[in-house]
Each structure stands twice: as structure tokens, then as C-alpha cells.
Design a protein that fits this description.
Number of domains: 3
Distance between the termini: 47 Å
Structural class: alpha/beta
Strand content: 5-15%
CATH architecture of the largest domain: Up-down Bundle
Number of strands: 10
Length: 598
């Protein structure tokens, strides 16, 4: 069945705890640097707890007693403590930053590895812009969250609890006063964090929609210009861009409310401490140094607390991105190697379709009861009207899809019991819609064999009759073809694609209208060259121009997904039937006047 479209832009496939647990799986593989960074952070936190004690001692024991030497000793000890804290801070920051960037790299790696192994069903059911957004905007959001020192903030929670224990030891009454506002701060952070997570997911969704609009406009630029759709395309982009603006403004509004509330609660705790501490000093129940030292402690305590609140907003963005990323990673693959799959080694190229039927949607069959054998070295031509199932048949051979019924055998091995990589590495596919990658002509030809020499690239180009136009280019094989090969004509693109397939030296070659955009003279030259290219290898050739497949060993005529005729050209022309009618239509010859060629 056709894979249903999965909108991963606004679905939450797991709760927050599940997303965090999944993400911690990446963190767990970096236990050592994370542990060392956390240890450095805790050690720095312990050192950071020394100044309040020193302040209390300095005020109550040395300043009050006019002991300048004692105050100087305290100052010197603090300088050493701050230097050591700076070193530990460097260690902590470097280890966490390096680990964070490595985790982002691993997530992006896993996403792309998942992407390139999906079947054609996935790409047919997913929006290109949405897929690109997962690999760009979502990864960037996760990277920004990691750069926002998420790991440091997590370790900061530990140091905050450590400070809290020390504060209780220092002065438990003042600690209770300071903690009176903490529940309100946590409540504000949790509520705004939940609101932000939903809105950040909307931001990511709007970015995906913008990417889709841009991708479709760029890839369909010729159609857009031909139908004068520039204004309509602009309106669509403005709509998506405005939705992105509104989503971002909503997150900004919540952040703008949360920050002053948190700061106001912090100021309220300081005011409460001054009031209560001053009252206790007037009663003689507390020394001035204790209050001053505790105020320093409170500042130190508020630092990780405020950092946690700040990072919480960054974390919500990262959680929204991580949720989308993991939803993307969890989309099932429908074409996978069987557990007992084996390598296809030294194939002879015998291909057999046994009782094969296929449907894209599980209801309407586009191929039914296909029985076909291609012997090693044979050229099989597939002929039929548009929609008869020709391209689908060869797509099954490349295992872009799996049949609903029946099976495909290569040298007697069921295709589903062979390792996918070993099959495709011995099969070359030249589709009708030529795709060239940005880079040079040589790079695109060498895509068929990355290790090929310059001489091998030139030989493949010569066989595809591409060497003549390449020689006329100023940079020759180092000419940049542009995105999608737009600097070359369609005929030139097809020749490069054909050279790429020739260089791969496959056991099975599939040509799907591979010469449809080449002029008649060039097509004749390429057909002559293909005599050498096809010799010794099994080939499937799809062609609407029947003149290009006259010499095929076997011509198979498809109609509405069924094989209705098969045989050599002369045999099929000699008897009434679909092939003879197609030939008559193309060459404007009455079917009853056609004769076999001699």
C-alpha cells in the first residue's frame, strides 16, 4: 500500500519525559566528558560557596576588630579561589560545548542516514519542504538549545541544590525566607514553558511550510513563469511568512511576560530578607556579617536558578524540535533487508518476474499477473501506452517498491532475500526525468563509480556521445552544471546520465526513455553506441519511439498492467495486435500495409 502522509510538523508522538529519555540516549554515549564536565561544575560551585563565609568572617572577626592583616589574608584566599574557579569553569564549558555540538552532529547524521534509506513511497508521501525543514530548521533549533548551555543548566540544578544545603547550614531562618518565592518562580517557569513548547512547535511547522513554498517555487520556476503565477506565488509566500511571524511574536510575548515576573519575585525575596534580617539584628539575634554573607549566598543561589529559568525557554524550543526529529526518525521503512538476506555476488543477470502483481494504494492494481524472463545478456524492450505499467515494472526490479503478489528473481534468488545495497550496486537506472547534481560534468559521470579514473570517465562520455559537446565547453569535464544541471540542455543532461550508467558497468541496465530529449541524429548515434554498451548485460529499455527498440531481443507490450504481446519486432509486426497498431500510429502507415523488415 502507498505510505500515508505523516505530518510530523505538529504531532507530538511522545510526552516530554519520553522525548527527554530518547535524547538522553545520545547523551549517555558521552558519559565520560559529561561526567568530567559535571565534576568540574560541582567543584566550581563548592569554591563559589566560599566567598559568603569569607565575607561573614571578614566583617564579624576582622573588620569589627580592625584586623587589617586578617582581612588581607581573606582577600588573598579569595583571589586564589576565583582563579581556581576560572580554570574549572573553562574545563566545564569546553567539555559541555564540545559534547553538545557532537550530539547535534550525531542527530543530524542519524536523520540523513534514515532519509537516504527510505523507499520511494516515503518521498511520494512526504512534502519536500517538510523533509528539508527536519534536517535544517529542526536541527538548528536543537543546536541553538544545546548552545544555550542546556547541559550546563542541567548540572546547575545540582549546584543549586548544593547551595541550598549550604545555605541551611549558614542560616536556616533566612533560607526559609528566601525559599518562600521559589514555588512561585517554578510555577511561572512551568506554565510559560508548556505554553512556549506548543508555540515553538508552531514556529517549526511554519518554517516547514515556508520551505515547502520556496522549494516548489524554485523547482517549478519554469511553470510559474510560463503561467504568469509570480503574484500568486508571492501571495502564498507572504501568507506562510506571516504565519511564521505570528508564531514567533506569540513566543516573544510569553517570554516578555515571564522575565519581569521572575525578576520581580527575585527582588521580593531580597526585600523580605532585608526586612527579616534587619529585624533580627535589632533584636540581637543575628550579626550584620551573617546577613551580608547570606545576601551574597542568595545572589549565588539565584544565579543557577535564573539560568534554569532562562534556559527553560531555550529547552522548550529544543524539545519541540527534538519531538519533531524523533517523529521523523520513527517513520517506518517499508523496504528493508530481510534478516537472512545475502549478498548478490558476480551476477549473471538472469531476471524473472513470477506471477507479479502490484498496487500503489492497495486497491487499484497497476500490474497484474506478470510472467517474464530476461536471460543473461538479453535486451528486453517494454512498450505500451502511458500508464500501462512500464516504469512501475522496472521500479520493482530496482526494489523501489515490493510487489503485492508474486516475486522477482535474479539468478534464481528472490529479490527480497538479497541485500538491497548489493542489488542496486549491480544495477544502473537511467530515468526519463534526468537528475544531475550540482558540481562538474566529471563529478556527475563519476557518480556511477567514485573511484573511476579520468580516462574511464572520458570513455563513458564517448560511448554516450557526450564527449563532443563537452569538448566545446571552455572548462571541459570541469564545467559546473548548476543545480539540477540547468546550465545544460535536456539532451545534454540525458547524455551525462547515460554516461554515468555506462561507467557503473552494471550487470542489469534499465533505460527509461533515456533518449527522449535527444534529437533524431544524436539518437541514432547513441543507438549505435548502445549496441556495444548493452552487449553482455541484461537490459530493460522503455521507449515510446519504436524505432529505438527494433533490434531488442524481446519486445513486451503492456496494456493496463498486463502483458498482451511479446516477441521480436518482425514477429510482432507480422501479426495484428497492439504493437502493430502502435507502430502504424507512429509511422503513419496503415496497419494492414505493414510488412516485416528484411
Amino acid at each position: 500500500m502507498r505510505m500515508p502522509y505523516v505530518d510530523t510538523s505538529n504531532l507530538s508522538g511522545r510526552n516530554v519525559a519520553g522525548t527527554l529519555r530518547r535524547f538522553m540516549g545520545y547523551v549517555a554515549s558521552h558519559r565520560r566528558p559529561v561526567s568530567l564536565g559535571a565534576a568540574a561544575l560541582v567543584a566550581a560551585a563548592l569554591i563559589n560557596a566560599a566567598p559568603p563565609w569569607a565575607m561573614k568572617i571578614a566583617v564579624d572577626d576582622f573588620v569589627a576588630q580592625s584586623d587589617a592583616a586578617g582581612a588581607i589574608r581573606i582577600a588573598g584566599a579569595l583571589v586564589l579561589a576565583y582563579l581556581l574557579r576560572a580554570v574549572l569553569g573553562y574545563v566545564n564549558f569546553y567539555l559541555f560545548a564540545r559534547t553538545s555540538q557532537t550530539i547535534v552532529y550525531e542527530v543530524a547524521r542519524d536523520m540523513f542516514a534514515r532519509l537516504v534509506r527510505h523507499s520511494m513511497r516515503f518521498f511520494e508521501s512526504q512534502r519536500t519542504g517538510e523533509t528539508v525543514s527536519h534536517l535544517t530548521a529542526d536541527v538548528n533549533a536543537l543546536q541553538q538549545a544545546m548552545q544555550g548551555q542546556v547541559l550546563t543548566a542541567g548540572a546547575g540544578l545540582v549546584t543549586m541544590l548544593l547551595y541550598l544545603a549550604v545555605m541551611f547550614t549558614f542560616e536556616w531562618r533566612l533560607t526559609l525566607v528566601a525559599l518562600s518565592v521559589v514555588p512561585l518562580m517554578v510555577l511561572v517557569s512551568l506554565v510559560t514553558g508548556r505554553m512556549l513548547r506548543v508555540r515553538y512547535r508552531r514556529v517549526q511547522e511554519s518554517i516547514a511550510n515556508i520551505n515547502t513554498a520556496i522549494e516548489e517555487n524554485v523547482s517549478g520556476v519554469r511553470v510559474s513563469r510560463a503561467f504568469a503565477r509570480e503574484d500568486a506565488d508571492m501571495r502564498r509566500f507572504q501568507t506562510e511568512n506571516r504565519a511564521n511571524l505570528q508564531a514567533n511574536l506569540q513566543t516573544t510575548m510569553i517570554e516578555s511576560i515571564a522575565h519581569p515576573v521572575i525578576e520581580g519575585l527575585s527582588a521580593l525575596s531580597v526585600a523580605g530578607l532585608l526586612a527579616y534580617g534587619g529585624w533580627q539584628i535589632t533584636l540581637g539575634e543575628m550579626s550584620p556579617g551573617t546577613l551580608i554573607g547570606f545576601l551574597v549566598f542568595l545572589q549565588i543561589f539565584h544565579q543557577p536558578l535564573t539560568e534554569l529559568v532562562r534556559v527553560n525557554y531555550v529547552v522548550q524550543s529544543g524539545l519541540a524540535a527534538a519531538d519533531r526529529i524523533f517523529n521523523f526518525l520513527d517513520i517506518p521503512r517499508d523496504i528493508v533487508d530481510a534478516p537472512d538476506a545475502v549478498e548478490l555476488r558476480a551476477p549473471r543477470g538472469r531476471v524473472e518476474f513470477q506471477d507479479l502483481s502490484f498496487s500503489y494504494d492497495g486497491h487499484t492494481f497497476v500490474l497484474q499477473d506478470i510472467q517474464l524472463i530476461a536471460e543473461p545478456g538479453q535486451t528486453v524492450a517494454l512498450v505500451g501506452a502511458t500508464g500501462s505499467g512500464k516504469t512501475t515494472l522496472v521500479s520493482l526490479l530496482a526494489r523501489f517498491y515490493d510487489p503485492v503478489r508474486g516475486r522477482i528473481l535474479i539468478d534464481g534468488h528472490d529479490l527480497r532475500r538479497l541485500r538491497l545495497g548489493s542489488v542496486r550496486s549491480r544495477l544502473a537506472f537511467v530515468p526519463q526525468e534526468t537528475m544531475l547534481f550540482s558540481g562538474t560534468i566529471a563529478d556527475n559521470i563519476r557518480y556511477g563509480d567514485p573511484e573511476a579514473s579520468d580516462e574511464a570517465v572520458a570513455r563513458a562520455a564517448a560511448l554516450a556521445r557526450a564527449d563532443e559537446f563537452v569538448a566545446r565547453l571552455a572548462s571541459g569535464y570541469e564545467t559546473i552544471v548548476g543545480d539540477g544541471g540547468f546550465r545544460l540542455s535536456r539532451g545534454q543532461q540525458q547524455r551525462i546520465a547515460l554516461a554515468r550508467a555506462i561507467l557503473a558497468d552494471p550487470a542489469v541496465l534499465v533505460l527509461d526513455e533515456a533518449t527522449s530529449d535527444i534529437d533524431t541524429e544524436s539518437e541514432f548515434e547513441i543507438q549505435q553506441a548502445l549496441v556495444d554498451v548493452l552487449r553482455g548485460r541484461t537490459s530493460f529499455v522503455i521507449a515510446h519511439r519504436l524505432s529505438t527498440i527494433r533490434s531488442a531481443d524481446l519486445i513486451v507490450v503492456l496494456d493496463e498492467g498486463r502483458i498482451v504481446q511479446r516477441g521480436a519486432h518482425d514477429d510482432l509486426i507480422a501479426r495484428p495486435g497492439p504493437y502493430r497498431n502502435l507502430h502504424a500510429a507512429q509511422f503513419d502507415t496503415p496497419a494492414d500495409e505493414q510488412r516485416p523488415s528484411t
